[in-house]
TrEMBL record:
SUPFAM superfamilies: alpha/beta-Hydrolases. Residues 19-211 form the AB hydrolase-1 domain. This is AB hydrolase-1 domain-containing protein. It comes from Natrialba aegyptia DSM 13077. Gene3D superfamilies: alpha/beta hydrolase.
Length: 239
């Protein structure tokens, strides 16, 4: 797993667990990291491997061991990064962007059950449409071209097990998500996070690739600093 620190002179530690296929070189990811460093954070950004054999060994444990060095830190996670982040200890505030706590409607359970039983780690399963409509209007050609197109049956098996074993979400956590997101299931969010702690935006899977991202970035930064209290007194109408 690759990780990189941005803004060594930052005042506050922030762990950012990026989503599946996200890279620092993606323009919209870089935009978000820039906003975080401008806000004074020392950002510890993690790129998740896009194919795994074991959820804990390949995704969770490297980050869990890394955060042990922090007395306190803020936690931001996107998509599959939120599947990892919900199992991390020690964060002061938790902000999840489009948390991948369940597969989207395009991936029926019967199909997932079937492919997860295939005994191979070879990436041979197409991931479906990860295009601009799915991710967000600002998704760049470079981002789309460098997003992997295949995962393995082992990947499906391990991520489904992790989704089924979700821990209790922190009571002060904030979730940003879109009702038009085709990648994730919204049901696990509704089952685990109070509605007043959920911020809806109009767009695809990636808030940072949304055409409306500028309307939400200040609220995201406030949520990182003050948790759910930052959004309870504010109301944003998706546009």
């Amino acid at each position: 797993m690759r990780h990189r620190v941005f803004n060594d002179d930052g005042d506050t530690e922030l762990v950012f667990v990026m989503g599946w296929g996200n890279r620092w070189t993606h323009e919209n990811v870089s935009w978000l990291i820039g906003k975080l460093t401008d806000a004074g954070y020392r950002v510890h950004a993690f790129e998740l491997p896009t194919n795994i054999e074991d959820f804990k060994a390949d995704w969770l444990e490297p980050i869990a061991e890394y955060v042990l060095e922090f007395e306190e830190y803020q936690l931001l996670a996107h998509s599959s990064g939120a599947l990892v982040a919900q199992a991390l200890d020690g964060a002061d505030d938790h902000v999840y962007l489009s948390p991948w706590w369940g597969y989207g409607a395009d991936y029926p359970d019967a199909l997932l059950d079937l492919v997860s039983k295939v005994p191979t780690t070879l990436p041979c399963l197409p991931v479906g449409d990860m295009d601009r409509d799915a991710l967000g209007e600002r998704a760049t050609d470079h981002q789309l071209a460098t997003t992997p197109q295949w995962v393995s049956p082992a990947f499906v098996r391990e991520t489904r097990h992790a989704q089924q074993d979700l821990l209790t979400i922190d009571h002060d956590a904030v979730v940003f998500c879109s009702l038009r997101d085709p990648v994730i299931s919204l049901r696990p969010i509704g089952e685990r996070v109070p509605a007043e702690h959920v911020v809806l935006y109009d767009g695809g899977h990636e808030l940072f690739s949304s055409a409306t991202r500028e309307r939400y970035i200040d609220l995201l930064l406030d949520a990182l600093e003050d948790g759910a209290a930052a959004i309870e007194a504010r109301s944003i109408v998706p546009a």
